Amino acid sequence: MQSSPEERRMRRQDAVLAAAVTVITLGVVLAMVRLIAPDPAVGLSSAQSWALGVLSCAQAPFLALRRTWPVATLVAVAVCQVALVAVAPEVMSHGIALLVAAYTIGAHAPVRAAFAVIVPAVLLQAATAAIAAWGLPGTSAIVVSQAGSAALAYGGAALVGSYVASRRRERELERMSARAQIAAQRERAETAVAAERGRIARELHDVAAHHLSGMIVQAAAVGRLIGRDDEAARSGAAWIRSQGKATLENLRQVVGLLRDDAGVDGNAPVPGLEALPVLVAEARRTGTDVVLEETGEPRQLPPIADISCYRIAQQALTNVRQHAPGATARVRLAYGPRDVALEVVNGPAAASPAVLAAGGGSGLIGMRERAGLIGADLAAGPAGDGGWRVHLRLPVPDDGGRARQDVGGRAEQTHAGRADQTHGEQADRQHGEETGDRR
Predict the structure, then answer these.
(1) In the prediction, which pLDDT does 126 show?
(2) By Cβ atoms counted within 10 A, which residue in 9, 158, 249, 381 is the most buried?
(3) CA-to-CA distance for 223 and 388, rounded, in angstroms?
């Protein structure tokens, strides 16, 4: 069976490690033979010194298989270690290879498999020490020292490996959880956008079907009346023209502004930026400390842009009330020669925000959808003082900065010729009580 690239890379790494440990062990053995072995206090013969060196170096090559066969690797290293004890029982020597092999079995093998190798290895090393040191002074001390050092070397390295593996698994679970949360958030955002666009499509269909079907029927009637009753034909043509204007206005007002509403007056005018003072006053009545700043020469915006800007300001103030209760807020509306800027900034919350029901998060999505529909740039994020900032910039043509009419005049104009447009306006005006999680 062909191995995967990951397995081949792992084997190359283990082979490099085995070679490095072999070289290091060889250096230590040579230093020991030259410096320690000649010392009469140590009591090692030259043959014992070289045997210790050869057996210590023989342990290292097995590390090339440490992650492929961790149990077999530790068994092979333990056999070499028992041979070391048999050669010189009075020497407590546990090399780098043994520590690495024990670490590996703790990190990559089940706990039972690790104990099944470590416990017999410690017992076998102690028994070998007892046999090899039989008749020597301090035999019991040698056996106890060998058993204790073996247990510490094997068990300590295995515990470190198990801890590292546990931390590695925890980090992987955290990464998986974070990826799952990001995917869920993305799915919720896509679902909210899809639902919004579905409502837009349904509303546009209703508006078009209601108005255009009547216009088609009337146009057919006008065609039959031409030459027979010119006065009636002119009256029909005038009706078609008025219906066409009403249809265009209605379509502009409902695109991107659709929500489910209840209890809304179908004859109320659709609000725009000129209603910001009223919106701010309503926010103050609900307990939000908010001020309104207007600069520049007011200008008439297209209906869809006017309504969208108002709804974005309304949603931003709703978010302040939900997520930063007790915070001060500022609404700034600036008319420039080539753009209109709307900014809603609030400070940090003075009280704990209310716990919202699950499924929020569509407030900011809705604002971005509105901004995209009118070609505006929307930026929303934390402010420097711990609050929140929503900034909207709408490019507009330089048409001389025509001033807007007063609220009463706009309301009267909005009502004219729209008695049959109630459904489209209701879908647009329901946002007065709209709430949504922005973050």
Answers:
(1) 86
(2) 158
(3) 60
CA-CA distance, 23 to 18, in Å (whole number)?
Answer: 9
3-state secondary structure of 375: coil
pTM over 0.70: no
Which amino acid, one-letter code, is at 294?
Answer: E
Residues 416-436: pLDDT tens digits? 333 333 333 333 333 333 333
Last residue of a domain, one of 149, 179, 209: 179
Residue 190 lies in a domain: no
Pairing of strands 339-346, 388-395: antiparallel
Written as one letter, the residue type at 14 is D
Query: Helices 362-373 and 139-225: crossing angle, nearest 10°?
Result: 40
pLDDT digits (tens, 9 = 90+) for 339-393: 999 999 999 887 766 544 444 456 788 788 889 888 999 999 998 888 999 999 9
**What's the domain count of the chain?**
2
Burial 336-372 (b: 16+ CB within 10 A, else e): beebbbbbbbbbebeeeeeeeeeebbbbbbbbbbbbe
CATH number of the domain residue 369 falls in: 3.30.565.10
For 94, 110, 261, 268, the CA distances from 107, given in Å and listed in that order, are 20, 8, 59, 70
Longest dimension (CA), the chain: 137
- Nearest CA to 422 among 430, 410, 412? 430
